[in-house]
Every structure is written in C-alpha cells, then in structure tokens.
Amino acid sequence: MTARTPDSARDIPEATVARLPVYLRALTGLAEGGTTTCSSEELAATAGVNSAKLRKDLSYLGSYGTRGVGYDVEYLRYQIAREIGVTQDWPVVIVGIGNLGHALANYSGFRSRGFRVVALLDADPDRHDEVVAGLDVRSFEDLEAIVKEDAVSIGVIATPAVAAQSVADRMVAAGITSILNFAPTVLTVPDGVDVRKVDLSIELQILAYHEQRKSIAPGSEVVS
Questions:
Q1: N or C: which end of the chain has fewer CB within 10 A?
Q2: pLDDT tens digits for 56-65?
Q3: What pTM does this model have?
Q4: Any known ligand binding at 98?
Q5: Residue 96 annotated as binding?
Q6: Does 70 carry a binding-site annotation?
Q7: Does 100 count as an annotated binding residue?
C-alpha cells in the first residue's frame, strides 16, 4: 500500500505511510503543549523513532524543516494531515454494535482526527432500539442506502469472526473501498479495496512473549 501526494506523482513507502499518523499525533501533542518549533531529534523522541528515520520519512513529503531552526510544528502538522487525507471529513460506518462496537462508537478520537461516524449497524433486531453516542443503531439492511446517502468509503467491522467476511462482501458491493477489521479473521477482498486488521489478542500475545523473555534468567532456556 502506498500513499500518493495530492500534487505529485511520487509514491510513499508503506512503512512511511504507517508512521505518518504517529508523527501527526506527536506534533499535535507538541502543539497542545505550546511548542511552536522543534528539531528532528525532539520530534523523533516524541514519536518514538530515531531521527534519521524521521528525516527520511519527511523527505518524501518535501522540505519542511529549516537548518538551525527545526520544524514549524503547526505547519508540519497541517502538511502531514493533508498528506494522509485527514484535513477533510471522512464519513464512517460501524457494523457490529456489541461491546467493541459501543466502545468504537464512543471513541472521541474519530472526530478530532477527521472521521465522522454516520451510522451504527447491527443484524440483531434487539439492538435496533439502542442509541449509542447519539446515533440510533440501525439494521444492517440499511447499509447500501447509507453508503449512497453519505458517500461512505470507509467501513469498520466489529462483528464476530464468523460474520466478518459476509459483512465485508456486502460493504464492497455497496461501494466501500477501505475497511478497518477488528474481527479475528483474515478477510478476502478484491483489488482496489484496502483492509487494515486490528487483532487485540495478537498484540497481547506479542506482549506476553516479551514478558516471558524478561522472566528468563540469562543463560537459561525455555523448556517446552
């Protein structure tokens, strides 16, 4: 996956694209703390990367730093936000309003980062009387109408794994071209549709691995 700048034909590597939101979050924190300019070392430390990698990443966007002065925090924040497309308002639909769906619907970070949840959908009729984060939970059967009415291109799947593929298929058929998948399963989608997978259990297992390594005494081995 690559990102294409609005005014040029150059492509940005996938690894760099993945770090741009991290830089944006770091710059937002610096701006909220009253910092107006920062060096690449300061920004890299805030973002949790090394400064050489940060400078390389930002070089794909253009030259926004001044030697001896550093980066203008607000200007660089705007340029990165423009690059990744969050200076505009992106309508989002969430499918699957269980515990995770509730949490996502109530997440205030969507709005502050350029995303507007326009609909909450669930296949369970018992949930259709619920109001979550100021939105009525609607039937999954309304998906096509909502996508058309609100020009939705981003969908979030928070369903059980068994339902995720059929939900993705219907999202794609309705015109959604980007999917954020929280279901613990791998989705199959056609070319031109981007999927980002968030598997909380895998992240926890990775942390468990590191915790296990910390507990092993130097020179000892894990016995299976």
A1: C
A2: 999 888 867 6
A3: 0.74
A4: yes
A5: yes
A6: no
A7: yes
